[in-house]
From TrEMBL:
Domain CAAX prenyl protease 1 N-terminal: 43-202
Record-annotated active site: 277, 358 (proton donor)
Pfam families referenced in this protein's UniProt entry, alphabetically: Peptidase_M48, Peptidase_M48_N
Domain Peptidase M48: 208-410
Region of interest (Disordered), ranges: 411-430
Name listed for the protein in its UniProt record: M48 family metallopeptidase
A GO molecular function held by the record: metallopeptidase activity
Claim: Ubl conjugation is one of the keywords in the record: no
Entries under InterPro entries matching the protein: CAXX_Prtase_1 (IPR027057), Peptidase_M48 (IPR001915), Peptidase_M48_N (IPR032456)
Domain of life: Archaea
Names of the cofactor(s): Zn(2+)
Length: 430
């Protein structure tokens, strides 16, 4: 059993230590490179206070590392002190069905995680984000979001857990049934999240009959795209960060622009950001990501199915053999780090899709607006433009900002070069 404990600690603790060290290396590398290329940041990104960007990155990473260490410490303490085992034993003695016991266990675990995250979320919102002029959220709104988010998490996670546990008890090949459920749910969320869940937190105002709508329609026309659902979201109620996104498929697809993005960018910059987002639909990146997620879920459920049948998984912390949910809990803890370590595979594909989207945006709206938009997004969000290469491999699904700007500028230069048939002065060739 000692070997299994060593395996558990190596995976769970070792993975977190690896990523913690990588985060520290990334911050130091980014700070060193930013100081060396401070002129580039001022001239290209328009960042006058480079030190402030570095301070923001250090504050965010430091808080994240503290939260990870605290969460991991509580998890290990709860497991090795016998607290989790006592909870499982108590649930088995309630007389509830294994299904209800499992749902109760999942609800308790989720509530514990939510409560543990409260001080870190509060500090992030009202200290870190406030210090760097990003926070616009009131304490009342934070409480509302927290309570609503907790209820939604309990309903969604609890419902999925109940379904999977029912499969475990009643379906011979339950990993296949569980996989199909989760994949189907993921596809359904592409429609339900923007239409049902997101409006619970933000207001979405249709963009109609305005200069902004004319600009959006121009992008649609150039891109050969049809979409009536274009919305501006009141992101400024909570944060000064800016973004835009495209979601859904078929008749349910919609474009969402943060009001912070609309307010901070020029019209041509908004257009090129929109063109980038539309490219993910035009190039079928969304169904490709769904297919990739389906493959990942297949691996996860195959691993869970194997581990749930191993006696040592239950013996590791003294869980009763009939408490299938407890064995699955340990299995999830073992599979999670493997998924984290395999992130470069998914990021590799994502990076390729992002380059395709940048190419489409430049071809549709031009290189200069794209370069300016990337610079504005990086500056407005105080992004670290110089990630460490190894950190980038594990964490970045977008190319670094300097690489993206260089890429689009090179595209613009190539487009501006006179061809053999059409010299630069516009005169016919001899």
């Amino acid at each position: 059993m000692l070997a299994y404990h060593a395996l558990f600690v190596a995976l769970v603790v070792g993975t977190e230590l690896f990523f913690a060290g990588l985060s520290i290396v990334n911050v130091r590398y980014g700070a060193r490179t930013a100081r060396a290329r401070s002129d580039w940041m001022r001239e290209t990104l328009g960042v006058e206070d480079v030190a402030s960007v570095l301070d923001y990155q250090r504050a965010r990473v430091g808080l994240s590392l503290l939260e990870t260490a605290t969460t991991l410490g509580f998890l290990l303490l709860a497991l090795y002190s016998g607290v989790v085992t006592d909870v499982v034993v108590a649930l088995t003695e309630t007389g509830l069905s294994p299904l209800l016991q499992g749902v109760a266990f999942v609800v308790l675990a989720l509530l514990a995680a939510r409560l543990l995250g409260v001080p870190f979320d509060l500090y992030s919102t009202f200290v870190v984000e406030e210090a760097f002029d990003f926070n616009n959220q009131s304490p009342t709104l934070w409480v509302r979001d927290y309570l609503l988010g907790t209820v939604l998490s309990l309903v969604i996670v609890g419902g999925l857990a109940a379904a999977v546990l029912w499969f475990v008890e009643n379906v011979q090949y339950w990993p296949v049934a569980g996989w199909a459920l989760v994949v189907g749910f993921s596809v359904a969320m592409l429609v339900l999240k923007p239409r049902v869940i997101d409006p619970l937190f933000n207001e979405f105002t249709p963009v109609e009959e305005s200069d902004l709508r004319d600009a959006v329609d121009e992008v649609f026309e150039r891109a050969g795209f049809r979409c009536e659902q274009v919305y501006e979201m009141d992101a400024s109620r909570r944060s000064g960060h800016s973004n835009a996104y495209f979601v859904g498929f078929g008749r349910t697809k919609r474009v969402v622009l943060y009001d912070t993005l609309v307010e901070s960018m020029e019209v041509d910059e908004i257009q090129v950001v929109l063109a980038h987002e539309l490219a993910h639909w035009k190039r079928k990146h969304i169904p490709k990501f769904v297919a990739l997620a389906a493959v990942q879920f297949a691996v996860v459920f195959a691993a869970l199915g194997y581990l749930a049948g191993q006696p040592w998984v239950f013996d590791l912390f003294g869980f009763p053999a009939e408490a299938t949910y407890a064995g699955l809990f340990v299995a999830v803890l073992l599979v999670g780090p493997v998924l984290q370590l395999s992130a470069p595979l998914q990021n590799y594909l994502s990076l390729a899709y992002e380059r395709e989207a940048d190419t489409f945006a430049v071809e549709t709206m031009g290189a200069d607006p794209m370069a300016n938009a990337l610079a504005a997004l990086a500056a407005d969000n105080m992004t670290n433009p110089f990630p460490h290469p190894l950190y980038e491999t594990f964490h970045h699904d977008h190319p670094p900002i300097p690489e993206r700007i260089r890429y689009v500028q090179e595209m613009g230069e190539e487009a501006a070069e006179p061809t053999e048939e059409t010299p630069g002065d516009g005169t016919p060739s001899a």
